[in-house]
Amino acid sequence: MHIFNAIFPVVAIAALGYAVRYFKVLTATDGETMERIAFNFLIPCLLFLGTATTQLPANMDWMFLLAFFLTVLLVYLLSMGIGSVMFGYSIRELSVFGMGGAYSNVTVLGLPITLEILGTKALVPMFIIISVHNLLIFSFGTVVAESKSAAGNNLPQHLLHILQEMLLNPISCSLIAGLVFNLLGFSLYPALLATLEMISRAAIPGAIFALGAALTRYHVRGQISAAITMVGLKLLVLPALMWLMMTQVFTVQEDWTQTAVVMSCMPAGISVYVFSRRYQSCEAAAAAAIVISSLAAIASITLFSWLLGVGLD
């Protein structure tokens, strides 16, 4: 499938969601309701079905996990260094700026686009990434943000709170439940399987539509230079370094390397803005980076897919 054909439906559905909300066909409450349905119900059903029924590898490729998150950590630290030198940010601002350069929207956009480009061979490495992505990045961001604050003595409590949130999060719970179901060798009752498959077909378009509608809440204003720098790190430096780490530093199988690189081309996740609001730091830059990267990711995904030689059939 051509890259354009893989990306166009995602962009079109997101644009439709944005337009419907922008022209007030849906109210703000309607949009928030759609987000809750998509992210608390539809996507978890999709993830549970995928992890419960996919063929897990006989041996886990730990080098893949190490290579992926070592790359994310390096870009996070590089972003912090750039934020300190170029913009003179405080430690909390640096924690947000670093996350903006390293945190990919691996679920809402990563799932549909990667599946369209790479097919089902990307399922296992995708689920591995998604299952620990938020926990590791948010934990590291919290360590940075709290490292020099008066609340630093409460860091263990902050990290425990993050762990509790992740375990109670519908997306994380669905992944864990599906994995346990798979490892125990259970099979889904045919009628239940058909139900989950029907729900799952609505998950991706529903989530993308809701994301498009949600983008109307953010505006490209203030700290534009910081936002553009963040986007450059996110869409160019992260995927390029990901490819180098997977192929030159570690030896990771080709399919998994392709999955990691394509997912690293995704725009900055909305959770970056949530994190910025939590610490009241770099909020304008984070919001602008989400909007800009959501548009510019099309070019990044196309470029790196072409360099990988995928999505060209």
Description:
This protein is an all-alpha fold and 313 residues long. It has a single domain, classed as Na+/H+ antiporter like fold. Helix content is 77%, strand content 0%. The protein has 13 helices and no strands. It has helices at 3-22, 28-53, 62-87, 91-102, 110-118, 123-146, 155-168, 170-183, 190-214, 224-249, 254-264, 271-279, 283-308. Helix 3 (62-87) crosses helix 4. The radius of gyration is 19 Å and the shape is globular. It starts with a helix and ends in a 5-residue tail after the last helix.
| Major sheet summary line | none
What does the overall shape look like? globular
Can you identify the CATH class? Mainly Alpha
Q: How many DSSP-defined strands?
A: 0
Question: Secondary-structure blueprint of this entry?
Answer:
Elements: H1 3-22, H2 28-53, H3 62-87, H4 91-102, H5 110-118, H6 123-146, H7 155-168, H8 170-183, H9 190-214, H10 224-249, H11 254-264, H12 271-279, H13 283-308
Helix pairs in contact: 1-5, 1-9, 2-8, 2-9, 3-4, 3-6, 3-10, 4-6, 4-10, 4-12, 5-11, 6-7, 6-8, 10-11, 10-13, 12-13
Descriptive labels:
313 residues; 13 helices
